[in-house]
Amino acid sequence: MDATPLQLIERICQTVIPLVAIVGLGYVYARRSHTDMSVANRINMDLFCPALIFSVMSAKSFDLIAHLDLAIGALLVVLGSGLLVWPLCRVIGVAPKTFVPPMMFNNSGNLGIPLVVLAFGEYALPAAVVMFLVENLLHFTVGAYIMDHRTHPMALLRNPMILATGLGLVWSLLELPLPMIVATPIDMLGKIAIPLMLFSLGVRMTSIDFSNWKPGLWGSIIAPLSGLLIAVPATWLLGLDKEQSAYLILFGALPPAVLNYMVSERYNQEPQQVASIVLISNMASLAIIPLTLAFVL
């Protein structure tokens, strides 16, 4: 992975600029024309993302055991970030239910997956999906419990992404064949997910204001810092190789997921403050992510 400074800068630009371009396109388009992404987002969460998850996990190249340590690392980063941040909420003056979930649940889907693939190549996609699966599963279990202690566990079984994860695991572990006539449309649907996530993020940014800038500013600092404080020692603790260490460190530096805003709206948990945290943190990641890439590449 050694490279000259010029090659390193070129690689970082090749990784970050396509993401910024699609997000920016979504932002510009939505500024010029009223854009309601609610239906597209629901289809993406219910169909395209599950298709991506199943497509990757059912592929012959997906080795669950090979990514087990990485999955444990992602688990430590998500839960460890929450434990680090929770005591700080009183100091910052923000409710834990408002501030802790965005610090725990990062943008491993619409930013993390394309970022890892662009930085390390298509062969890194299974690793990116593993980290996304861990974060997403925790978001719909631990995250749901944080927001509402009355969340029923059976509701999880109706979540398409969790269903796709379970089915993909079965397919992978049993090494079941998947006919091309079935695999091809699933793969095509899955490829819609990432660019649609990025475009949707750009559209979402047009509806967020800066009236709650203080929590957003704190979040832009604490989100990557708390993630890295867990990710870096976790690479040593788990004995990850150089590439997996790079994946986990990059995972730890990711900003909060847009889904945090959607969840806060659903539970009426100060959505405007959460929106500010998500927006400002994602804007700050334009500086943080290149620095992290420079460190791990």
TrEMBL record:
InterPro entries: Mem_transp_PIN-like (IPR004776), Na+/solute_symporter_sf (IPR038770). Keywords: Cell membrane, Membrane, Transmembrane, Transmembrane helix, Transport. One of its GO terms (cellular component) is plasma membrane. It is a multi-pass membrane protein. The chain crosses the membrane at residues 12-30, 71-93, 113-134, 155-174, 180-203, 215-239, 245-263, 275-296. It is found in: Cell membrane. GO terms for biological process: transmembrane transport. It comes from the Bacteria. It holds the Pfam family Mem_trans. PANTHER family: AUXIN EFFLUX CARRIER FAMILY PROTEIN, SLR1864 PROTEIN. Belongs to the auxin efflux carrier (TC 2.A.69) family. This is Arginine/ornithine antiporter ArcD. It comes from Marinobacterium lacunae.
